[in-house]
Amino acid sequence: MFTGIVQGTAKIVSIEEKELFRTHVAELPEELLPGLALGASVAHNGCCLTVTAIEGNRVSFDLIKETLRVTNLGDLQEGDIVNIERAAKFSDEIGGHLMSGHIMTTAEICKIIQSENNREVWFKIQDPEQMKYILHKGFVGIDGISLTVGDVTKSKFCVYLIPETLERTTLGAKKLGHRVNIEIDPHTQAIVDTVERVLAQREAAAAAALGNDAE
């Protein structure tokens, strides 16, 4: 479990490609190394990965076929930077919102509006079906960052980024066309799915009642 509060960034220093499989090595900040062990969970751009090897501050992670397909981690090249968060502890402050590290889809940056003290960034979801979970003032995880949703249209949504977020995360360097990982807030997903199911049941019951009356 993660909080969506990015703890630092890490450079990808090597990548080993195999068939439908990849191992990459990230150079983690020194402050994130204490207590790190094999099998630990570390979020890369919001995607939960497992530590497979540790050599000083160089930490290895395996990426399977599904991870490469669903996330933007398959786009990474040596030298690229990713957002990093260690798994949350029970005593940690939840400054963002609870996140699982399970990426649902990706989104493309389609518009950037810069003002004096913040940046408005618009995203177009790759899987349009996921837009029903993106609600005005709701939560969304973008490359592992817990953010509040701003305006929402049928196929796009925006967030507002303060200078601190732009400075501490990779979002400050993102450009038009760049792809980001999206994690839907699980509470929002559960509510939307429940409402849809209840409405479908009511419609089915009403249709059945009309059919009986017609007989």
UniProtKB/TrEMBL annotation:
What's the Enzyme Commission number for this chain? 2.5.1.9
Can you provide one Gene Ontology molecular function annotated for this UniProt record?
A: riboflavin synthase activity
Q: What class of enzyme is it?
A: transferase
One GO cellular component assignment for this chain's record is: cytosol
State the Lumazine-binding repeat positions.
1-97, 98-195
Q: Which biological process annotations from GO are given for this protein?
A: riboflavin biosynthetic process
**In which pathway does this enzyme or protein participate?**
Cofactor biosynthesis; riboflavin biosynthesis; riboflavin from 2-hydroxy-3-oxobutyl phosphate and 5-amino-6-(D-ribitylamino)uracil: step 2/2
Source species, domain of life:
Bacteria
Q: What residue stretches are annotated with the Lumazine-binding domain? A: 1-97, 98-195
Report keywords, A-Z. Repeat, Riboflavin biosynthesis, Transferase
Role noted for this protein? Catalyzes the dismutation of two molecules of 6,7-dimethyl-8-ribityllumazine, resulting in the formation of riboflavin and 5-amino-6-(D-ribitylamino)uracil.
The family database entries (NCBIfam families) matched by this protein are listed as: PRK09289.1, PRK13020.1, ribE
Q: What is the official name of this protein in its record?
A: Riboflavin synthase
What is the organism of origin for this protein?
Candidatus Pantoea deserta
